[in-house]
Structures are given as C-alpha cells and as structure tokens.
Amino acid sequence: MIGFIGLSHLGLNYSLATAAKGMEVICYDPDEALVRSLQEEKFPIEEPGFRELYAVSRDRIRYSSNLAHLGECTLVLYALDVGTNERNESDLTRLDALIGKTAAFLSKNAIVVLMSQVRPGYTRSLVGRLGISSGSWFYQVETLIFGAAVQRALEPERFIIGAADPAAPLPDAYRKWLGAFGCPVLVMRYESAELAKIAINLFLVSTVSTTNTLAEICEAIGADWSEIAPALKLDRRIGPHAYLKPGLGIAGGNLERDLVTVKGLAKEFGTEAGIVDAWQRNSAHAKSWALRILERDLLAAKPMAQIAVWGLAYKQDTHSIKNSASIELIRMLSGCKIHAYDPAAKVETAFLPNLVVLPAPLDALAGADALVVMTPWAEFSGIPPKTIQSHMAGKFVVDPYGVLKHGACHKAGLLHKQIGNP
C-alpha cells in the first residue's frame, strides 16, 4: 500500500498518477471537510486530464482523515505544497505541523519520502529532530507544473532522490514505485537534491530573463523574436526544448521563492548572488510591459479608458493568481474601469474596486477602448479578430504572448501589440 500525506495540488496529482500505474493508494489529510469533498468526487483543483484519470483509477485510491490508515503503508510520501509569504519566502509551518501530527503513526518499517520543496538542509535536520533512522527517509524533487500537473506526474523526465547515503541501494518498496514510471533515477545526498530543484528553476529564470531582454530590443530595432528563437533551438549548447517564448517575467510561487532562497543562502554563507537581483529587476520590468504599452499608446490621450482583460491566472490551465501579472496590471490601472474574464481563476473583487469579472470573454469587450490578453488560454486563440473588433468600442489590442494572429488582427482593423514583434 502506498500512502500520500497532504492533499494539496502536489499530493492530489502524484497520488492519482500512482493509482493510475496500478498501485493501491491511501491519501491522508487532517482536513476532514476536504477529505469528505474528495470522497464525494468534488476536487479543489482543475488540471487537464485529472478527472478523466480519476475515472479509470478510482477503485485503487482512497481518501482518509484517519491516522490509523497510515500504518498500512509500506511507502509513504509527504506531498504537501509549500506556500510562500509576502516576501516569497517558503512557509514551512503547515508541513512541520503535518509531519509532527503523522510521523508517529507510520509503520516502523515504512519507507518515507519527502516531496514538498524545502530549503537545503531541511531533510537532514528533520531526521535528526525526529530521532529516526536516516536510511528509511528520503527527499525527492517534485516536478509539479500548474496546468500540466497530470502529465508531469505520469511521465516524469527523471527522478532526483536525496538520501543519507547515496551509495546505498534504495529500499525495495521505493525502488518498485520509482520503476513504475520508467524514467532515469538520480540519487545524491539530501542537500544536493534539495538544491537541485532550486538550480533547475534558476536556470529557467536565466532563460526567461534573457529571452525577455532580447524580445524587447526586437520591438525597438525592427527585429522579430519569433524569427530568432528557431536559430537558438538549433544550437546544441541551448537545444530544441529551450524556453524561448517571451512573456511577462516570472510568476506563480516556486521560481520567485527559489530566487529569495538563494539570496538568503548567499547572505548566510557569504557568497555572491548579485545576478539574482538582476533577474528580479528584469522580471519586474517584463511584468510591467503591458502597462507601459497602454500608457504610451492609449492612456496618455485617454487616462480614464475602459479596458477589457482576458486572463487573471498567472498562466494558462491553472486557477492560481499567485504573483499574477494580470492582477498587478489591474492594480496599477486603478483609474480605469476593468472588465475581465478568466475561465478558471477566482478573484476577490473587493480588493480591486475597479474590476468587474464577467462570465464570457466577449462580455468583457462591451464598451472597451482596449483589450489586454494577459493569460494565454487556448480558448482565446479561437476567437476571430473580426469578432473581437465588432464587440469593442476601440481598436487597441495588447497581446504579450501573441495569442491572436498578428496578421489577422491587422486585417480586422485592430492595432495589435506583441512582445518581440516590431
């Protein structure tokens, strides 16, 4: 029996992927109301493919708030999402409390894996605090991506494992679970695995920052970033899977959290991390791209304009608005009337008095002087520019990600602005 503890985004997706691989799964969370909802097949998340996968795996997965059920498990994985505070620092309060509540109920022979993202040094310190055998506790880097969580859980690129002794063979129960996913397994010391997750995210941030810097230069000099990106993908030192799509900086929680973590480690141990400050400044600049375009081309002449915003989530295929560039834009446009639509994200409009959320994308266009497409949801690309033009009062479209076709917008009489497009 495989046990998962903590039923937030991470735990829900990895437990379901485990059941889909044919294993029996018990999922524990102390929140009885959440467990009842899950037992009634009412899920607090929306992910492509989640409900379909649950439909074919439901007979192998149970949701429980009964601590005694944890004793049945030979392998237990702590899979609680670790949130961040207002300074983008990891908040481990819930994870610490969850481990403190459950550790004593695990079988003495159970193999335990910590999947929640933690600061380097946490796992070894935890094992010491609990006074348990380090040979039975492991750390595993999670590969969760909001909007692609099911696919990532089912088909991981690799597993990165932190162990007290990387040279020792992995326990059978753990090795069998890992083997079901058919991907490379890298075993290293606890601290290396904990830092590996941060290293991956920082390399991603460097690519995002470089791409956004060059895309903005493209706009100024008449180059087109979409023509340059294929050349980079053909360079062996960069590669075909490089993230080279311009956007509005980094958002969500994990990337910014890791930048803050590295700055904290550098301060603590006297290393140099000035490049992280540069990435953060670059991200803040990129996040304000839409605002700069609006101020220059619309608000200078019409400061009280009505603006339609498509997309509130920080990225497509998720309901999360953590560090959302769209929400930040709406805050900065406090003098404008904003009509917005998002297919999944929910926003407390009491904190944004200029915002009205409407039930359909075309509803948000009525009377709008401009449309800003802030989240590249697939459904937006299927709306013809002619239809957009007919529903708006103005003709100005700010489309950072190029969700709408530039040529089609031009033919429809729209003034279309895209990052990296002159």
How are strands sequenced across the largest beta sheet?
3-2-1-4-7-8-9-10
- How far is the N terminus from the C terminus? 57 Å
**Helicity range:** 40-55%
* CATH superfamily label of the largest domain: NAD(P)-binding Rossmann-like Domain
Domains, number: 3
Structural Rg = 23 Å
What sort of overall outline do the alpha carbons produce when their principal axes are compared? globular
CATH-derived topology of the largest domain: Rossmann fold
Q: Describe the sheet with the most strands.
A: 8 strands, mixed
Unreliable sequence segments: none
The number of helices is 17
% residues in beta strands:
5-15%
| Count of DSSP strands | 16
Going by CATH, the architecture of the largest domain would be 3-Layer(aba) Sandwich
In CATH's first tier, which class of the largest domain applies? Alpha Beta
Structural class of the helices, strands and pairings? alpha/beta
Mean pLDDT score, rounded?
A: 93
Could you provide a short overview of the structure?
With 422 residues, the protein is an alpha/beta fold. The chain has 17 helices and 16 strands. Strand 1 (2-5), helix 1 and strand 2 form a beta-alpha-beta unit.
Summarize the helices and strands and which ones pair or pack.
Elements: E1 2-5, H1 9-20, E2 25-28, H2 32-39, H3 50-57, E3 61-64, E4 75-78, E5 83-84, E6 90-91, H4 93-102, E7 111-114, H5 122-130, E8 137-140, H6 149-154, E9 159-163, H7 172-179, E10 185-189, H8 190-221, H9 225-233, H10 254-269, H11 274-287, H12 289-299, E11 306-310, H13 325-332, E12 337-341, E13 355-357, H14 361-365, E14 370-373, H15 378-381, H16 385-391, E15 396-398, H17 406-411, E16 415-417
Parallel strand pairs: 1-2, 1-4, 2-3, 4-7, 7-8, 9-10, 11-12, 11-14, 12-13, 14-15, 15-16
Antiparallel strand pairs: 5-6, 8-9
Helix pairs in contact: 1-3, 8-10, 8-11, 10-11
